């Protein structure tokens, strides 16, 4: 729902195409109900395994506030989550040091969740701009 409410200005001409593709118009009560029923945020409480969220703070498509909301919903339900925020990235990570950091941190996360080995993280994290926020379920 918030995606359509916060689309970048240069997407405005395509708004009706988006509405048609997703099946709900956020400007109508019926459309808002339809979209809320399909929103990942609605189902955050059903997540049962640790979740990794990675977000470019300057992403014009998926606003950081959406990832913030989802992380907070997981935390509120006491679901383990790791939230990686790259303050100097947009949609997709472009800086090589951030790409390396994300890959290393994702490998470590998967190793911890699934078992197995991971290459020890040396200086990838220090070279990147990543901010790591973690919530471990009690």
Automatic annotation (TrEMBL):
Alphabetic keyword roster: Hydrolase
Which Gene3D superfamilies would you find in this protein's record?
A: alpha/beta hydrolase
Instruction: Tell me one GO biological process term.
Output: proteolysis
One GO MF term on file is:
serine-type endopeptidase activity
Q: Which residues form the Peptidase S9 prolyl oligopeptidase catalytic domain?
A: 20-116
- Report the superkingdom from the record: Eukaryota
InterPro entries (alphabetical)? AB_hydrolase_fold (IPR029058), Peptidase_S9_cat (IPR001375)
Q: State what protein this is by name.
A: Peptidase S9 prolyl oligopeptidase catalytic domain-containing protein
